[in-house]
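Bench log, entry 3. Co-assembly request; chain sequences pasted below exactly as received.
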Amino acid sequence: MVVLTSESITPHSREADSKVRSTRIRSAIRGDFDQAQEQIAALVPQPLDPSRSYSAQIHAILRDPIVRGHLPPGAALSEASIAAAVGTSRTPVREALQHLVQEQLVQVYPQVGTRVAPLRVALIREGCFVRRTLECANLLDVVNTITGAQREEIRSLLSRQQAALHDGATDALFQADEEMHRRLFEFAGRSRVWTLIAGTKLHLDRVRWLLLDRIKGHAERILREHTTIVERLMANDTAGFCSEMQKHIDAVAVHLLELRSCLPESYFSD
Amino acid sequence: MVVLTSESITPHSREADSKVRSTRIRSAIRGDFDQAQEQIAALVPQPLDPSRSYSAQIHAILRDPIVRGHLPPGAALSEASIAAAVGTSRTPVREALQHLVQEQLVQVYPQVGTRVAPLRVALIREGCFVRRTLECANLLDVVNTITGAQREEIRSLLSRQQAALHDGATDALFQADEEMHRRLFEFAGRSRVWTLIAGTKLHLDRVRWLLLDRIKGHAERILREHTTIVERLMANDTAGFCSEMQKHIDAVAVHLLELRSCLPESYFSD
DNA sequence: TCTTGCATACTACCATGCAAGTATGGTAGT
DNA sequence: ACTACCATACTTGCATGGTAGTATGCAAGA
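Structure output for the full assembly:
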């Protein structure tokens, strides 16, 4: 497959220079839209709930498989196919796709097609910076105010992770992980900061799910790191906490390179 | 006008309990949708450019006046009115509004109306945390790698701010300010971190524009602080830089309280 | 064999119409 | 005077149709 570089094609730009793009690259944008329909249809769990917004439900249905890698970078997402798969008109599908565009999970090429966005190395690298910076800064405040009950809650979330790993339930492991980090922000009255991070975390999670499938013992490593981090937290060792947290988050960026060598180059960009 | 509290009404929730909301509060949601049309029409500079996406253009047309306070919190934004004002159908207007919803600048109450979101104190307070944390952390890296030319660029952006203040051009002042901060991230290869911050900065800017109108000498104070910050940067005094930057950004949160006393309570939330 | 041109089938974008839900103002009944 | 009710005029959510732009594959020509 021809590589889609972000230099050659800028999504949603109708500028004059779009005329001069080579046909060779353009043809890479279209292509396998045919298999899209059944691929999407398999993701729809059940008929949509008419009492809730269709757009929101479709957004959720699409986002999860993108982040988890079931819809790989470059996968075609045509409005009509998805609409047929979920059983609605194209309108709510379109709104869901626009939402995903803003999250930078898909790219729309006007009049051409919509595709799952590649893994953008720069986005991931900078996402690591944002996460580790905000989480460390937040923790410096939390350690001064944390209560015994809150300590206990964190500890219990860690043991939930251990149990999940033991059962091989990576879903539950990730969920407990997410909740642990979120709670640390809520302890400092910063729940909205976490929702901000959650937006950038989407891109880090795309890498993490891929790593989980390809790299042996990855889940074990995650849990080991979490354990170390919580130990530092319990010991009020903020410096140690920050350095461990930093290593833990930046591991995504480090392993990204390794991932790049065993996956199609078209999965990546930047 | 009746206060719209976020506890009483959750946007875009079609849950069963929506039936029990009191009529008194609901009636506050609708109301002055009549004056919306001409209010919006005054904001449209010229006919839209058909060669670019209508949605994006409408989004830009609406966002600026919201951030600047020309469309105050609570202002009605009905799809039909805006569509008539800009001369398109409701579809691209709808997409622009959805975009603004994601930026948390407007709230949509299904089947009731769409309004400019109030100034959310928590969002602003936590936005300050995000900005000061990321900007300080970024600068710790920048000071080690900054070149002479980059130093000169920052200095020139500061003098552009001085010139703008002298001319009373607050627009140009804000623009140069924004570019200065953005460049500091680009120096470290983190342009995407800045776009992330720009999203939270929207809410801080809403406060800043209001302050600029109400508080005498506010522009002068901003420039004074910028000057101090750049001085610290030039002197490689990173600790001083961070503390000044912190004061500068947190000033928004501090003055927010003061602003709350001289503006309708309905402008605020949380 | 290779290139060029064109019909065709797709795409996303936008316009329009309908449906479901909600606030408002007037009216009938108490 | 006051309350309950209902017609009406809004709102947003969704469905559908038309349009401009793009890739593809075939056919005609060099």
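The first strand of chain B starts at residue 106 and ends at 109. Chain B touches chain A at residues 12, 14, 51-53, 55-56, 94-95, 98-99, 102, 110, 122-123, 126, 129-130, 133-134, 137, 189-190, 192-193, 196, 200 (CB under 8 Å).
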